[in-house]
Design brief:
- By secondary structure, the chain is an alpha+beta fold.
- It folds into 3 domains: 10-53 and 142-239, Probable tRNA modification gtpase trme, domain 1 (Gyrase A, domain 2); 57-139, Alpha-Beta Plaits (2-Layer Sandwich); 286-359, Aminomethyltransferase beta-barrel domains (Elongation Factor Tu (Ef-tu), domain 3), CATH 2.40.30.
- The protein has 7 helices and 19 strands.
- A 6-stranded mixed sheet has the order 10-11-12-9-3-13, sandwiched between helices. A 6-stranded antiparallel barrel has the order 14-17-16-15-18-19.
- α1 (36-45) crosses α6.
- It is globular, with a radius of gyration of 21 Å.
- Residues 17-267 form the GCVT N-terminal domain.
- The glycine cleavage system catalyzes the degradation of glycine.
- Belongs to the GcvT family.
- The glycine cleavage system is composed of four proteins: P, T, L and H.
Length: 380
């Protein structure tokens, strides 16, 4: 896999005996370090540390930066203040999704966009195609590493290695500190998450990423912190019903079909895709993303067909045996007329149609004792 891209942390992977890397969108990334089940449980119960440095980071500056992003994305950029992050989407004119992303407001008319790794080139080209005077775009992806510390003990672990001027526990959901000091390194520290648990993201220069990774792993050793790979990242986000681009979102799946209408502000100024999405909302989406449970022995996988009354009405977008719940669950995009809770369905698995039904989502929702993140972008 020598022709694949590697993150600045790749040289550290070999120190973990059970690590297994795969080709993920052109990147050589760890699917697991010690086992997906073990890593999943660690994040739910203690904490896990993810290398997500393959993500893309763009900066948007200039006197027209806010207006440009308001035109390019579906959420309302004007409501966020410096130090605040926002989940949003970029759409095509027909309402299909270019990408889902996070916008960080660093200062007035100064933003950072965090985009999905497999979409970096496409997103960059899309933004450049619509660039207007008074806006400067910079691609900082290669210079930026990104670590994600996730789990109920994330605050305790991070507080061990954070400078005294930064109280990690006081950072609100979807807020960030630009000049936090972690493991003696100055970085941007945010609190969003893509696992359904509490957690932080650490945006650090590529050259200093290994120092921060090793410092966090040492600080969390006595609290059960483990390195976690893409496998656990996928099962965790799936249980929390957080979308993955290419599965729950795509050029042919709109935000409204995916249940992300709260991030589509149709009452603000027009953005690309506004007209199509307004029409879709007024008419009601023909399709809807729902949770399903297979009631017989069988695990749902992406693209498995879903039937109602003998007619195919959609397909699975993501599915697995839930590591937390030990149930065979899936997300499926189906005909909206069959989306009510409890609706009996059938799923075709290896040529056999098995009984299934529509169930409530998210499949896992942690008990919150204080304000915590509720929605993240793919960021994988």
């Amino acid at each position: 896999m020598s022709d694949l891209l590697r993150t600045p942390l790749f040289p550290l992977y070999s120190q973990y005996e059970g690590v297994r890397c795969i080709d993920f969108g052109g990147w050589e990334l760890p699917v697991q370090f010690s086992g997906i089940q073990k890593e999943h449980e660690a994040v739910r119960e203690r904490a896990g540390l993810f290398d997500v440095s393959h993500m893309g980071e763009f900066t948007v500056t200039g006197e027209q930066a806010e207006a440009f992003l308001q035109h390019m994305t579906t959420n309302d950029v004007t409501v966020i203040a410096p130090g605040q992050a926002q989940y949003t989407l970029m759409c095509y004119p027909d309402g299909g999704v270019v990408d889902d992303l996070l916008i960080y407001k660093l200062a007035e008319q100064h933003y950072m966009l965090v985009v999905n790794a497999s979409n970096i080139d496409k997103d960059w080209a899309w933004l450049q195609e619509h660039l207007t005077p008074g806006v400067i775009l910079t691609n900082a992806s290669e210079q930026t590493a990104l670590l994600a510390l996730q789990g109920p003990l994330a605050v305790e672990i991070l507080s061990k290695v954070t400078g005294t001027h930064t109280d990690t526990g006081s950072i609100e959901p979807f807020r960030f500190v630009q000049d936090a000091h972690v493991c003696g390194v100055k970085l941007l520290l945010s609190r969003t998450g893509y696992t359904g648990e509490d957690g932080f993201e650490l945006y650090v220069s590529a050259e200093q990423a290994a120092l921060v990774w090793n410092g966090l792993m040492e600080a969390g050793a006595d609290l059960g912190l483990v390195p976690a790979g893409l496998g656990a990242r996928d099962t965790l986000r799936f249980e929390a019903k957080l979308p993955l681009y290419g599965q729950e979102l795509s050029p042919t799946i709109s935000p409204l079909e995916a249940g992300l209408g709260m991030f589509v502000k149709l009452n603000t100024g027009p953005f690309i895709g506004h007209e199509a999405l307004l029409q879709q909302k007024n008419d009601g989406p023909d399709r809807k993303l729902v949770g399903i449970e297979v009631l017989e022995r069988g695990i749902p996988r992406p693209h498995y067909p879903i039937y109602a009354d003998g007619v195919q009405i959609g397909e699975v977008t993501t599915g697995t045996q839930s590591p937390t719940l030990k149930r065979n669950l899936g997300l499926a995009l189906i005909d909206a007329r069959h989306a009510a809770l409890g609706t009996p369905l059938e799923i075709e698995i290896r040529g056999k149609k098995l009984k299934a039904e529509v169930v409530r989502t998210p499949f896992h929702k942690r008990t919150r004792t204080s304000k915590t993140p509720s929605q993240g972008a793919e960021q994988a």
